[in-house]
């Protein structure tokens, strides 16, 4: 029976460090379902199904993480979503 022992270096090489952030969109009483769906499709490149599901989660849960990525990638999306009158933050 052969036992494999990994060195610290081998373990570190398998570990990928990522700085993934989440773009979170919040519910409000102003924007329509269609407006939020269209925004998620245009800004986040969601499919219509993804956008609709996220919008329902936003409505019923109060918020939804709509995209994951690096801060630089999400910042422009957050800015455009907010420009359209929808509340969003990066966490």
- Overall structural class, as computed from helix and strand content, comes to alpha+beta
Helix content: 40-55%
Intertermini distance:
47 Å
Give the spatial strand order of the biggest sheet.
Answer: 2-1-3
Report the uncertain regions.
Answer: none
Element-by-element helix/strand order: HEHHEHE
* Major sheet characteristics: 3 strands, antiparallel
Beta-strand content estimate:
15-25%
Detailed description of the structure:
There is one protein chain. The protein is α+β, with helices and mostly antiparallel strands and 91 residues long. It has a domain at 31-86. It is built from four helices and three strands, in the order H-E-H-H-E-H-E. It has helices at residues 8-14, 33-43, 48-61, 71-83, and strands at residues 21-26, 63-69, 88-90. The chain has a three-stranded antiparallel beta sheet. Helix 2 crosses helix 3. The chain starts with 7 loop residues before the first helix and ends with a strand. The model has no long low-confidence stretch (mean pLDDT 90).
What is shown here, in short?
The protein is built from four helices and three strands; from the N terminus they run αβααβαβ. It is of the alpha+beta class.
Task: Please specify the SSE layout and strand pairing.
Elements (H helix, E strand, L loop, with lengths): L7 H7 L6 E6 L6 H11 L4 H14 L1 E7 L1 H13 L4 E3 L1
Antiparallel strand pairs: 1-2, 1-3
Helix pairs in contact: 2-3
